[in-house]
Amino acid sequence: xxxxxxxxxxxxxxxGKKLTVTCSQNMNHEYMSWYRQDPGLGLRQxxxxxxxxxxxxxxxxxxxxxxxxxxxxxxxxxxxxxxxxTSLYFxxxxxxxxxDRNIQYFGAxxxxxxx
Amino acid sequence: AQSVTQxxxxxxxxxxxxxxxxxxxxxxxxxxLFWYVQYPNQGLQLLLKYTTGATLVKGINGFEAEFKKxxxxxxxxxxxxHMSDAAEYFCAVISNFGNEKLTFGxxxxxxxxx
Lengths: 115, 114
Hints:
The structure holds 2 protein chains of 2 kinds.
Chain A: E1 4-7, E2 10-13, E3 19-25, E4 31-38, E5 42-51, E6 54-57, E7 65-66, E8 76-78, E9 87-94, E10 105-106, E11 110-114
Parallel strand pairs in A: 2-11
Antiparallel strand pairs in A: 1-3, 3-8, 4-5, 4-9, 5-6, 7-8, 9-10, 9-11
Chain B: E1 3-7, E2 10-14, E3 19-26, E4 31-38, E5 44-50, E6 56-58, E7 64-68, E8 73-78, E9 87-95, E10 103-104, E11 108-113
Parallel strand pairs in B: 2-11
Antiparallel strand pairs in B: 1-3, 3-8, 4-5, 4-9, 6-7, 7-8, 9-10, 9-11
């Protein structure tokens, strides 16, 4: 079954404690993204990756890191989480970034609370 | 630059009534347009898309949308609402060439009244 898998689904942490949210897709997609979803703001892109070892900033990259060492995996790293990073996070993948090849498949989401 | 505006962050309709969710876009080049749906505690999934060709596109669960270039709109409709349609709906746009990324609207939460 084609899917994007995120872990964990729920996470409560404290300010400053490094954390990683994992994302894996089994569709051999080249393009992967991380989004955060906040009430009234819709989805905002944090980082994206066009392919292995190719990553770039999205709209709201501050406080986040990513890596793309393998095509299927695209972890999101918060080196020093702060309360304003409390949000619902989604990983997504698609064949490519442009045009109708950018039909995105989303993970189920990770709800993060930073105390 | 491209953008999407969804009118109405919350829409309520009675079961069996018409569903109309509005989406207007801005794009300097011909767009590809999408509607995604997010059910409670789930990720987004594609409902329907417009790329080229027929301007009336049909999606899953009885939804359809019409691309109107003159109005820069891509409104989502369903003739008869069902309780299972309660969800959040996102309109999204991307240009059909160039380097712009997929841009999402802020979403419309649809509530179905029994």
